[in-house]
Amino acid sequence: MNKRPILSVQGVTKRFGGLVAVNDVSFDVGHHEMIGVIGPNGSGKTTMLNMVSGAFQPTEGRISMKGRRLSELPAQQIAREGVGRTFQLVKLLPGLNVLENVKAGAVFGHRRRWGRDAEDFAHEMIERVGLDASENASTTSLTYIDQKRVELARVLAGEPEVLLLDEWLAGLNPTELDTGIELINALRDEGRTVIMVEHVMDAIRSLCDRCVVMSSGTKIAEGTPNDVLSNREVISAYLGDEDA
Predict the structure, then answer these.
(1) Predicted TM-score (pTM) above 0.90
(2) What's the rounded Cα separation, in Å, for the pair 107 and 117?
């Protein structure tokens, strides 16, 4: 891992009126590192991803990538800078088929591809996620995991330098979950830089280099998966003081 982080979150706070959703959170992400952001429901994890991707702007603090400040840019410009994401609830373009959805990622992503170049690269990303037999299918005809694969292929077609996965494994049955973990592990093996919000602890343990743990909007721990998942404060946040 390079000494200089590719992404840096510094003292970030997000308020919605009187509600503090994220409170003074800082962490760095190294090149080719896979970081898990974990914590109980309502702890501010998705709000943090929303700020990194530009859906929300921080109330305070700074988010930067390779030294360039992202936290004042609109979401579309942050995507151009090289941050791509998936969502808790899959967001596809229902009027377009699989190939057209993924091609859109190639056209509007970090590297702007056009025409035959965009289509050829979209074919590659569809094959990359194992959907080459369905590239002409309507997205509404796909299973849930295949819809997630389309969304992932579309993000990858944008060639992001930092990939954000927001509970990408949520809602999958055990067989699909194994397939999903295998796919994310392959992305890890490619050396991609990934921040993943996830509740599936088996995935966190097997995939992540480090974890940032949030509770009630605050970072309460950071370290390797084994270290943070054995941390008494983390156990208390998940299970309550009586079970910690």
Answers:
(1) yes
(2) 9
